[in-house]
Structure of Putative restriction endonuclease domain-containing protein:
Amino acid sequence: MTVVDTQPTLTELRPVFRLGVDAYHQMINAGIFDEDDRVELIEGELRAMPPIKPNHAGKNKRLNRLLTRGAGDDALVAVQDPLTLRPDSEPEPDLMLLRPREDFYENANPTPADTLLVIEICDTSPRYDQEIKVPLYAAHGVPEVWLLDLKQQRLEIYREPGADGYRVMLRPDPTEVVTPMLLPNLCIPVTEIWSTVS
C-alpha cells in the first residue's frame, strides 16, 4: 500500500486573522475605509461587496418608496446601513425597517432587536445571500428577511429564526399581497415590487 504524505492547507499554514465588531469600528474610526470602500464584516472576515448595478439600485429605490409610504411612522426605513451582529459581523442589508427611535440610531447602529424586517436584493450573488447572509440573520434572531432575486424575479420570505436557520420560507405568488409579520398594516402587492410604481 502506498502511503501518501499530505501537505497542510494554506489556511493551516497561515491562519486567517478574524476581526470582531469593535476592532472593525476602530478601523472605520481611524479612517482606514472611506465611503467608497464597499466592504462588510461577515463572521470575522471583511467581504468585498460587488458594485451596485442600475437594476439593483432601481429596485432599492422602488422598495424604499413603497416601504416609506406604507410604514409611515410605524418604522424607520434604513438604506444600505450597517446592522451590528455581535461579536463578529456587521452586514449592510439593502433595506431595513427599524423600530422608531428618538435618536434615529445616531448613537449606535441597529441590532437584531431593533429590526422589523431586513431586505436583501440579489442580482449576482443569490447563493451567497441564501447560504451565508440569511442563515447569519437567523442565528442572530432577525425576525424576518425578504430576499429578492432579480434574475428569477422571485421573492422569498424567511420567518421564525433559530440557530439552524429560518423555520419558515415562503415564495409568494405574483398575485399575492405581502405583509411583514411585525408590521401588519404594511401591505405590498407583489406586482408593485416588480412593476412601475405610479
About this structure: The first helix runs from residue 10 to 13. The two ends are 73 Å apart (CA to CA).
